[in-house]
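Pasting two entries for a bug report.
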Amino acid sequence: MAQQSRLLTAKVGATDRARERTRPAMAPRFRLVILAALLLASVSARAADSPIGLWLTRDHDGIIKILPCDGGLCAEIAGVILDHPTDPTPVDYRGVSQCHLQLITDAKPVQPNLWKGHIINPRNGTIYGVEFHVDPHHNLALRGFLGLPLFGETQIWTRYNGRVPDDCRLSASSGAKSRTVPSAPGRAQ
């Protein structure tokens, strides 16, 4: 009986030692998987906070596309939300269609999550200074100004998740104004 007990203890001990030998090999792999998942989550969170993409303007009358260009960012009108499907596409101050009109051509990063450049008012051709960033609620805070940012106005734009047709024409009745990414609770869109 004592001999069986010693054999059982030896087997249990050998099994425990075998587990200990496999645990260290599994632990680094598990840590590596966790580290990769955290890194991936961090990268996707950073991408979500990038200003690159589609944005619904404050007045919900246009979709602006921000894209990389010349080491900075540019913006163009990607969509115009029309009250009626038969309304004509708006034109700029020169009488040219606002579809794909460049609004920002020279925004450069001045610090992390802050870009500064110039923006044109398509209605009258006035050029303003502009600075913008993604705020903590994942909205775009865009400030247009004359001379100094102190003399300006900030608009909050919401990220747009819908599709925009090549002709830029969107109908208000099609629900274009509602295809935004929800902002933080308690925050108006």
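Entry 2 (this is the one that rendered wrong in the viewer):
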Amino acid sequence: MLTRIEAIRGHAAKDARACLGRAGSRLRNDTRAVAAIEFALVASVLLLILLGLVEVAPAWLVYTNVGASASTAADVAAQFTEMQTSDMVNVYSAAADVMQPYSATPQALRLTNVFSDGNGNAKVYWSCGMGALPAYTALGSVTTTPTGSPVGWFLWVYNSFGGGFQRNGTNTSYVLAEVSYNYTSPNSLVIRSAITMSAVAYYLPRTSTYVGFPWDGVSSDAPTVPTSATTASSVTLSNGAICNYAK
């Protein structure tokens, strides 16, 4: 009797092992779920990359526009021989227009004309600023150029192109534009906090050695020559920018 029961148990155990073996073999050979698992793993990475592109691409375009805005402001200002306050407002408007289709509200612009006195010294002739970039003090000393090179070296290069190789020629100057832009992502999925973007551009005056400002539009009452200026004054533009200038 015991022998028969043991035999039955043996057969049952053998059948169970066989069933488990067949089930395990089917699981090992079943690849129907592999594709789903692989897709889940790859899709999460692709989704992260996609979200990054959605936010990084606009940020990069804004950064490019910030650089173009600074270049535009300096370039337009450098084309003047003398500027009225309305001209300066137009320069600010041109710099803002470059930011389109993005808002120019987070943008700050500082525009400055730096001149040399002919003795290796550079000073602020005039400077306009608003927001995060306030105007520099008129007649304040300047020790470096936007490139970080000495002012004397920079202005020597100017004179070499302007006719003659005189170093630090009197009243030679450059126009400096600085732009700061506080960028906030519209989605905030990857870029979660605001980013401050900045750019600097500088141009040499096109038609004169310096850009006179502010001019009232009457030729007989032109702005004071930089090296003849002894005092500082200021004026507020219609757009809210404050300009400090030497007179």
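Dev reply: Rendering is fixed now. As a check, the viewer should reflect this: Confidence is low (pLDDT under 50) at residues 157-161.
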